[in-house]
Amino acid sequence: MDLRPIALYMASMWHRHSPSLFADASTVRPQVDYSRVMPSEMEQTTGAIETDDIIVLLLGAPAGPGPTGYLAGVTRLEKLVFLLEKETPARSWITELADFRSDKFGPFSAKIYKAAETLWAYDLLKDSAMLAKNTEDRWEEVNIVGDELMPYTTRTFELTERGLRYYAALVKELPAEAEEILTAFKDRFAGLPLRQLVRYVYERYPDFTDRSEIRDQILG
Question: How far apart are CA 181 and CA 170, in angstroms?
Answer without folding.
Answer: 14
